[in-house]
Design a protein that fits this description.
two-stranded antiparallel sheet, 3 helices, mainly alpha, about 70 residues
Length: about 70
């Protein structure tokens, strides 16, 4: 269910979440097991962000020389 909740977050919210995870991982006192867990969660969020960016890029329209719109 956690994955479904993450997909509902905006790109900005996911980037903020990733930043927070990175800050936690920079802590020298963080156990290695917890670092791996955060890394794995971060990679899942990053993939979700990349998928969303790809989806948006496909929807972007650009103007051609004739003044018509083409998909990007």
């Amino acid at each position: 269910m956690a994955e479904k909740e993450e997909k509902k977050l905006s790109l900005e919210e996911n980037f903020k979440k990733l930043e927070d995870m990175i800050k936690k991982m920079e802590d020298d006192e963080l156990p290695l097991e917890e670092s791996f867990k955060l890394y794995s969660e971060g990679m899942t969020i990053l993939k979700s962000c990349n998928d969303e960016i790809d989806r948006v890029e496909k929807q972007v329209l650009s103007l051609n020389d004739k003044g018509e719109t083409d998909e990007f």
